[in-house]
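User: Batch of two.

Assistant: Item 1 of 2:
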Amino acid sequence: MIPKESRGRQRLTALEICSEKDMRDIKDLLEKAESGSDNRNIKDDGGSQKLGNEEILKLREDIADSSKIIETLVENSTSFNSKTVYSQEKYLKRKEKKYFEYVQIRQPTIRLLAEIFYRQDPDKIMGIRVDSLSQIISYSNVNSCGNFLLFESGTNGLLPAAFINAIGANTSGKLVHMHPGNVPQKQAIQALNLPEEQLDRCISVNIYSVLREYYQGAEEEEDTEESAAKKPKLEDDKSLKWKMDNKKACDLMKEKFDSLIVVSRDHPLNIVKELLQFMKPSRPVVVFNLSKEI
């Protein structure tokens, strides 16, 4: 991040591509500088730096190279040469972290998304850490050639994203993702940027709607020509997709599933009892809940 201009207290920066070679190696400064035997005579009173705050801010605006800023700070430090080599290294690393500003662009992964969601707000993903997520995936025995049933009541799409990612692309595995809301949470799924064919094998349905259709069958509603003409095409597409997803889920429910995963904010007993009938014999059942005892 290269300083561009300042607007009052706001400091605008521009992004430039750099590599690891562009990052300053602190050993160069350590070889040139003298060092002390110990830190007994160093006083941490804030007066060892000759440059004031305004001078340092002006230095950051005028000089784009962070290594030169650090060199200037070292030259104007009265206690740097009295520090031990270990203390000097810590000092330089701290200054590098402060003045060498960079943005690292990384390809999204399940581990990275789990860490980001947990750091932002653990409650939104039910406090599921990376280790808990890995245990859920491991116990469920998810693979590329099976049908899996997942019920989750709000994890920002982290659970369905983890399972459809574990199933993999260009495979025969399918995931039925049941949720209690009107719209499924798919933030994590969208962040992974998965291929379309893999996304099509993640069937998200409302649990109450799909169970009603499974037991009672799809209810056909006859609309008049006048009401049909008033409906926007977008609503027709959404309604059609909703019915198709319910039908796909019902077909898989009749074939039975290879694994059942329930991640619920509420008590999961009734949900597990209801969904157990759709399981094949001797298949794993994984339950995650915020309560210590269920």
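Item 2 of 2:
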Amino acid sequence: MAVNGNHCSNVDQYRRKSIKSGPSDAETCDTTFPSFATKAIHVGHIPEDWPYKEVIPPICLSTTFKQSSPAEPDKHDYIRAGNSTKDCLEKCLATLEDAKYCRAFSSGLAATTALSNLLVPGDHVICSDDVYGGTQRLFRRILAKNGIEFEMVCTSNAANVGKAVKPNTKMVWIESPSNPLLKVSDIAEICKLRPLALGADVVMHSITKYINGHSDVLMGCVCTNSEEVDKQMTFYQLALMTHASVPKDDREKLGIGDNLIRLSVGLENAEDLIKDLENALANYKK
């Protein structure tokens, strides 16, 4: 069971294969500050992490990062997988939710879609009957075509949720207060606020809404204490990335081997590029 200002989900099985990934920087919940408000302001904001010790984390705008050697990044390699600014946000949100892991997405609906990929044909989902329109369309008009059953119930009465549970129920998705009718579900009865501390599986936030509050950010996140779910979320963040997502057999047919180095050529002088490559290869052989 999981909940946030907008949505609540309950996933009891994670059956898809995922790539191996390391733990998030947010893996350990920060207990330095006992107050929720103080944690929200300070966790993840460590001036000593930055070259000039900025008290406000600098915004990382680079999409790619220099690697010490091919396929061996110091920490990050591509912005969708992570960057220093994203690390700060994920650590802070994980701490606020008492979670080991947090993965930030480009929108709340992107986070919803990633979580939906935990479902497989034949699964049953209980959903509030007055959820965000984008969520309804995703569930009813897209995922339902894949053999996933969605049952919309009025979650304002917790008993309705209990009555709707089936042997194949894998997720409960709640929005409270709902959008647009402002229905209030008895979250304390269904799963409790800040539910990870009480045994819930996943918390999904539409950061665009309450967390941001200024109508100038589009973002979402998934927080969890499950390493398996975190691996799944990491995989879905990277699933569409270039050649890494191409099956090995297909890469070999295309001539894309592990020793292939992709070179992005811009406006640099050709002779300068050749010298730079020769120097890099010479140092690599050493």
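The two ends are 53 Å apart (CA to CA).
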